[in-house]
Design goal:
This protein is α/β, with parallel strands linked by helices and 422 residues long. It has 14 helices and 18 strands. Helix 7 links the parallel strand 8 and strand 9.
Length: 422
């Protein structure tokens, strides 16, 4: 029986020959991710942890990234509880503040191998589908149960097949592509679906694929998935993982899909997602001239080195517009080091950017860039609903790194095709 990516991997991991949409399967995930919310998760089962302990300590990955360094006593106490849990239960995969954003760290450290199943108490765990892994977010209660039992269940999702044709035309980027897809399908257009990418993926870098997979949940998807190809294997090889260290899984040619969509990449242009929903997507031309007060470059969506590099090429030798704050948020320490060594970080700082520590910071409105009433931020992040950056009376516009950098120069939303790139 031909199977999709999700059907095949869930069948194999549950010891079945096949799996069909709607069926329930029980599996042991390779890893469970949590971050600053670990304290809340273990708080649900403190008595049970004391009596039974953690079922599989090596399964639990913890990355402190949301409020780092601690912004107040509450956050500091939260971190203290997590560090105590790690020591008491001998959790081997703990990454303290400054390591980076959890999703980038998981990928850089080689936890998200092709064919692996990962779950996380963060909705953007779907990012790892860029690497051929089945990955999805779960809630805190489910994460707590998983710590005690070592296993969890899934309902096998229906699948959507997206076939890409042609290539993107710079400065159009992967962010413009995924926002365009979300605008096409809607915020609920892939609810509890597995979305597969086929066709012309060779022109998408690994960073591109990570950006696309990261935003899968913004159209309701259970998971996003790319096949393992030459670029994937090279990415892992550079990190010390040769092809014989993992077993890729991909859909059968004759697999059955609920929906199939063809996308001509050459027809994608720069777009923005206007307040206050991610699927409120418009061509950048429709937003040109809107005043911006803050520009955010980074996060788990677009905080990779290539994203900083794109912005640096636009900002090099120029200065951020008066009255505009440009915040730069590298996704990991590795990326920050790369930007420093290459001079990209210096280019951004000399242009007037404020460099933040690798973490989530302003994206969720916790600290380091909270907006004031009436302000507008253009951001490379993944969400723009009211209050997302700490103020319900502010506005967030989502865009690509190129559009954010171009807008930082003018103080208004600007088409990146209209600026000179050094």
């Amino acid at each position: 029986m031909p199977m999709t990516f999700a059907e095949k991997i869930l069948a194999a991991r549950s010891g079945r020959e096949s799996a069909a949409p709607g069926e329930i399967v029980t599996i042991q995930p390779d890893y469970l991710l949590s971050h600053d919310n670990t304290a809340a998760i273990i708080g649900k089962i403190s008595d049970e942890l004391e009596e039974y302990g953690v079922a599989r300590p090596e399964m639990h990955i913890i990355v402190l990234d949301h409020v780092i360094p601690a912004a107040n006593e509450k956050a500091a106490t939260n971190h203290h509880k997590i560090r105590a849990y790690v020591a008491r239960n001998e959790i081997p995969h703990f990454f303290d503040i400054g390591s980076g954003i959890c999703h980038q760290v998981v990928m850089e450290e080689g936890f998200a191998l092709p064919g692996h199943v990962l779950v996380g108490s963060d909705s953007h765990t779907c990012s790892y589908g860029a690497l051929g892994a089945f990955s999805t977010g779960i809630d805190r209660t489910e994460a707590a149960a998983l710590l005690l039992t070592g296993e969890t269940w899934f309902k096998v999702p229906k699948s959507i097949k997206i076939t890409l044709k042609g290539n993107l035309t710079p400065p159009v980027s992967a962010k413009d592509l995924i926002l365009s897809l979300i605008g096409l399908l809607g915020a609920d257009g892939a609810d509890y679906r597995s979305v597969e990418f086929h066709g012309s993926i060779a022109g998408l870098t690994m960073d591109d694929r990570m950006t696309i997979a990261n935003m899968g949940v913004e159209m309701g998807a259970k998971c996003f998935a790319f096949p393992v190809d030459r670029l994937t294997r090279e990415w892992f090889s550079d990190r010390g993982f040769e092809p014989d260290s993992y077993e890729p899984v991909w859909a059968d040619v004759a697999a059955n899909y609920e929906r199939e969509i063809d996308v001509d990449l050459g027809e994608i242009g720069p777009v923005v997602s206007l307040p206050h929903t991610v699927d409120n997507v418009k061509p950048v031309e429709d937003a040109v001239g809107m005043v911006v007060h803050q520009c955010l470059l980074g996060t788990c969506t677009n905080g990779r080195y290539s994203d900083l590099q794109v912005a640096a090429k636009i900002l090099r030798g120029n200065t951020v517009s008066d009255g505009v704050r440009l915040l730069v948020l590298p996704a990991s320490r590795e990326i920050l080091n790369q930007a420093i060594q290459s001079g990209v970080a210096s280019d951004l700082i000399q242009a007037g950017a404020v460099l933040l520590p690798p973490g989530c910071g302003p994206c969720l409105g916790a600290h380091q860039g909270v907006l004031a009433p009436g302000e507008r931020c253009i951001s490379t992040a993944n969400r723009n609903f009211k209050g997302r950056m700490g103020c319900k009376e502010a506005e967030i516009v989502l865009a690509s790194p190129a559009t954010v950098a171009a807008s930082a120069l003018t103080g208004r939303i600007t088409d990146p095709r209209e600026v000179e790139i050094s």
